[in-house]
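Dear colleagues,

As part of the handover before I leave the project, I'm documenting each prediction I ran so the next person doesn't have to rerun anything. This entry is a single chain, and its sequence is reproduced below.
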Amino acid sequence: MTYNLLTVDAVSPEAMARALAGCLGIAVGDVDVADSEGDPDLRNWDAPVSCEYRAVRGDVAWSLDIHAQEHVAGQPPESDLAAGFAKAAVTTVLFPAEEAPPSAYWAVTPEGLLTRARLEPSDGEPSRYEVTAVEAPVPQLPRATVTRFAEIVREQRPDTPVARAFAVSVEKVRQAAPGLARPSLDDGTAGPVRTAKGNLVAWERGITQMESGWAPSGWYPACLYRERLECRDELAGIGARLPRDVAELLDEALEQLDGRFAAATEEDPSGSLRRELTGGSAERTPVGWWWRRRPNPRPWHGPDAVQPA
């Protein structure tokens, strides 16, 4: 298994070996630690665990490429290894997050605090790496802005079985009556069926995240919540543009999702949520009943809320 870690402090090779041995449950002598630009003839290529380190500039000091051979029994997830390494080496450690943005990282402190971090390279040469933002204060990164990461929430894609079932059913309808030239969800067109599918996926994702307590981030951007409601607006008006049997399938899917949405929200007869999300604009007043319900609490509010960067 391969691990990629960044350390804020310039940890010594001896400390790296001790920390990795403790994290992986092996002897210190079974860890080969070497400078990536060092003499390869001095390496122990048969070591169960190898760690190449190289110096980097900026808010991080070392980049570690760690490889544990298959016969090493204890191979924890990267997050657990990073936390154990941070504690043993007494330094904050960064490791890549799963989301798409290349700047998305996690930071874990020696005390065990785990938080999101945004790591960005400079434009000049040689590159310097700066931790520009974190979601919780990290003592070793005092210049980082404390903020929430809206782009990470957008990258989260929970499963959408209702939308998937709708797509499968529509395709079966098309295949059963090809002479009607019904649109296919897989033909790359931007027709009404494709639009309905995309909006249904977005609507289901928002509901699923609401039901989970906005996991895994624990919050939700107001702008993204508004977009989900606007997707429901689109679904309300698209039925007339669909073949009748496809429109019926869409109605069935919406009946399921709307019931879940209603169960996860409460009435908002004063329209406070609508005014908050739209800025009270009179240009386009939402009329769907979903605009007259609200999550409680609102996931972008709270005593410890910070504004997304």
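The first strand starts at residue 2 and ends at 7. Confidence is low (pLDDT under 50) at residues 180-190, 302-309.

All the best with the project,
I.
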